[in-house]
Amino acid sequence: MSLNTESKLEKILKAGHLAVTSECGPPRGTSLDKIEEKANLIKDCVDAINVTDNQTSVTRMCSLAACIKIKLMGLEPVLQMVTRDRNRIAMQSDILGAAGFGVNNMLCLSGDHQSFGDCATGQNVHDLDSMQLVQTVRHMRDEGKFLGGGDIAGPPKIFVGAAANPFADPFEVRVPRLAKKIAAGAEFIQTQCIYNVEKFEKWLGIARDRGLTEKVFILAGVTPMKSAGMARYMKNRVPGMDVPDEIVKRLSDTPKEKQADEGIKICIETMQRLKEVKGVAGFHVMAIEWEEKVPELVEGAGLYPRPEVD
Amino acid sequence: MIVASPKPMEEIIDTVKDCKKLLILGCNECVTVCEAGGKKEVGVLASALRMYFAKQGQQIQIDERTLERQCDHEYLEEIRDIADTYDAILSLACGVGVQFTAEKYLSTVVLPGVNTCFLGATEERGMWTERCQACGACVLARTGGICPVSRCAKRVLNGPCGGSTKGKCEISKEVDCAWQLIVDRLTALGKMDEYEQIAPLKDWSTDRAGGPRKVVKEDVQS
Q: Which cofactor does it need (chain A) (predicted)?
């Protein structure tokens, strides 16, 4: 097993285990206690914790600071970085900072458009796109060089990930786009939340046929629904989300007080089904502001206890 | 062409209210085509202002003039004799015209009467859409002739991003996803294999990031 970094996530994936990651959204304030609280809720049932980067374009504590807090707790953070808010100087600088504190994983994203957030009239940057950010991290790590050509004193040893959304349009470009992200240097992929399992399997099948699942670790993204209202909102209002009618119906047909339990059940069923699908290397559990449910989901899917790696 | 839209009337009134003598200066080029600052709009605005100030009991002389272009020396020279007789010139040209006029007539206040918006095309009468951000390093050869710099809300050069839904951008169902258009076009051209080539990091030094730009054509100069 050849490892490129000190990442625990890389070790788990390369050892052939199904990996489990989850995420924490940093607070809209200065208290690191919130991060600690969230991380403690999930720490025993995940291998690594993604820290979102001003998700939905709402201003929050920086992802890097929250990652450092998680690292200092002895846990494994995944730094999410969006290209929306930083130019190539700031991104390279933050990558060095992250690596300096032993943050060994990164997820490279373009980010939601700022019009969805609390600074809708602000400028966006997008000096690079997400694919070029993947290239940048790999260039810094593997070549030991800055984009400007200068040598890095102590290149950042970071395991590099990217996102994939099999449900965005046009569908026919989704596998080529995955191929492009792999060619750019992505080593793991975390997908958009999967509700339309058949469509996901179709996408993965095409990727598998192209040999892409041999080149990258794909972590299937799941998010439990709290209610029929949430399902309808995600179906109708969240761009790039595919929630089939039968999921909405199943939740709507459930008495209100039991809808959250039904949402958990659906999520566990999805994970159990996808565990058996060739090419799924693990799960990314995004329990948005519902971190206390992550252990139940991971146990329910038969993914607990988590493997030990050196 | 450069597309502009009229400034709100209240804003214009606020900027010209202290004038005794005002020249509204139109431009016969782009702003005429996009119906924001040609001879017709100069006339309409002048009438509206005259009516407003008459109602206020305020005496303002408002004259009208439209030049062939406000971004060229020779046409701007046509008002050389009269420019300094006005308290202000309200230019309905794009930002280039406003600045060039101001640069030429230092003793006269020059004010903008339109908001300069973008480089665009006429979709239909009364509708113009952005097509170019004048980034100075055209990528259209790689993108099927559709510009992701000006038409993708995130300027993604290797798109589409994960927010593309039914051919529309995540920011609005009214906005086409530029990358859907690119993919459709590359497919029609039988060039989807080119899509998998990763676009290199863009050199933004030819864009605004590199500071004010200049084009010099030496063969014409000499």
A: FAD
Q: C-alpha distances in angstroms, A156 versus A14, A100, A211? A: 20, 8, 29
**Among residues of chain A, what percentage have pLDDT more than 90?**
97
Give B-chain residues touching A165 at CB under 8 angstroms: 162
Q: Is the pTM of this model over 0.90?
A: yes
Query: Is A207 part of the contact surface with chain B (CB cutoff 8 Å)?
Result: no
- CA atoms of A217 and A221, how far apart (whole Å): 13
Quick check: A168 and B165 CB within 8 A? yes
Q: Looking at the domain that runs over A8-301, which CATH code has it been given?
A: 3.20.20.220
User: Are the C-beta atoms of residues A104 and A76 closer than 8 Å to each other?
Assistant: yes
* Three-point CA angle B216, B221, B222, nearest 5°: 135
Task: Give me the residue spans of the domains in chain A.
Answer: 8-301
Mutate which of B161, B203, B206 to disrupt the A interface (most A C-beta within 10 Å)? Answer: B161
Q: A131: closest CA among B91, B25, B128, B200?
A: B200
Contact B146, B182 (CB under 8 A): yes
Q: What is the mean pLDDT of residues B196-216?
A: 96
* Tokens 């206690």 -> residue: A33
Give the pLDDT confidence score for residue A239 in this predicted structure: 86
Predicted complex: ipTM over 0.90: yes
Please give the residue of chain B at the shortest CA–CA distance from A84: B154
Question: Helices (DSSP H) in A218-301: which residue ranges?
Answer: 228-237, 245-252, 259-275, 294-300
Nearest CA-CA distance, residue A174 and chain B, Å: 9
Tell me what pLDDT residue A28 has: 97
For B39-54, the pLDDT digits (tens) are 999 999 999 999 999 9
Q: How far is CA A174 from CA A111, A204, A285, in A?
A: 18, 10, 21
Instruction: Answer yes or no: are the C-beta atoms of B114 and B36 closer than 8 Å.
Output: yes
> Cβ(B87)–Cβ(B21) under 8 Å?
yes
H-state helical runs in chain B = 9-16, 30-33, 39-56, 73-76, 95-104, 148-151, 178-188, 192-195, 218-221
